[in-house]
């Protein structure tokens, strides 16, 4: 009687059920093919590689982010002799509002993705019609998980950028308003570096959002994902290295006055 009772012990039943669920998960997870793994690896490699390229470009062709970093440092130096500094405060407030807006957007998008992960059935039918294949619910949850990771990273970058812009604001307020003050130049230089770091994190958050949008294509399959990664990479690269604003900043495209004005 004791041996029979032990066979139906609640702990043993729970362990057995957990093993069954684990086997089911591994079986369902195995339905992802090698091409899916390659596509995800390509996304991560392109995302990180492109970010490194933008932040460490060649001297012959700098990115917009690097060029603007020098203008940010110059801004802090010019601010020393500007009185009053109302314009500087307004620009900084605008930058912080931008980071707050994108952080709020990422938070809302993250909540939407979490809701879909909790109930993938509405999305499952549409995605299966597009991909022409049926997959277990856990597969769709994994694919949405990739989008969730990128959105979460973007949210953290925006929040940190907002905070560093706050540090920069305090440092700007501490810069003496006298160019002859020995502390003016060093304090302005510190404010400039904080401004650059905040902008760097803001740009990283934007790139993470771009690739999160591209990661949605994984719902249609690995090939659409790789195609979306290529398109996203082109959009990000062109805006940093081959855009009209960059040409204007670099004086490669002189601005002509409008004869109608």
Automatic annotation (TrEMBL):
Transmembrane segments annotated in the record for this chain: 32-54, 100-118, 138-156, 210-237
Name this protein carries in UniProt: DUF599 family protein
InterPro entries for this protein: DUF599 (IPR006747)
Name of a matching Pfam family: DUF599
Entry annotated with the keyword Transmembrane: yes
Keywords: Membrane, Transmembrane, Transmembrane helix
Keyword Transmembrane applies: yes
């Amino acid at each position: 009687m004791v041996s029979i009772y032990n066979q139906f012990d609640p702990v043993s039943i729970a362990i057995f059920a957990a093993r069954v669920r684990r086997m089911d998960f591994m079986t369902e997870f195995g339905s992802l093919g090698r091409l899916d793994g390659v596509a995800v690896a390509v996304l991560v490699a392109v995302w990180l590689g492109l970010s490194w390229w933008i932040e460490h470009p060649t001297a012959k062709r700098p990115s917009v982010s690097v060029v603007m970093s020098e203008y940010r440092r110059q801004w802090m130096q010019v601010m020393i002799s500007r009185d009053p500094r109302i314009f500087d405060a307004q620009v900084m407030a605008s930058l912080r509002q931008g980071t707050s807006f994108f952080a709020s957007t990422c938070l809302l998008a993250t909540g939407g993705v979490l809701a879909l992960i909790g109930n993938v059935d509405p999305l499952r039918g549409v995605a299966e019609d597009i991909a022409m294949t049926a997959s277990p619910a856990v597969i769709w949850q994994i694919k949405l998980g990739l989008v969730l990771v990128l959105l979460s990273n973007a949210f953290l970058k925006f929040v940190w950028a907002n905070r560093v812009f706050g540090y920069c604001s305090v440092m700007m307020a501490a810069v003496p308003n006298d160019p002859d003050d020995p502390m003016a130049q060093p304090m302005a230089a510190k404010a400039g570096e904080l401004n650059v770091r905040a902008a760097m994190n803001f740009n990283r958050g934007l790139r993470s959002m771009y690739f999160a949008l591209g990661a949605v294509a994984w719902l249609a399959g690995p090939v659409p994902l790789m195609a979306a990664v290529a398109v996203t990479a082109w959009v990000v690269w062109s805006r940093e290295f081959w855009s009209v604003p960059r040409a204007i900043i670099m004086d490669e495209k002189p601005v002509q006055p409008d004869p109608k004005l």
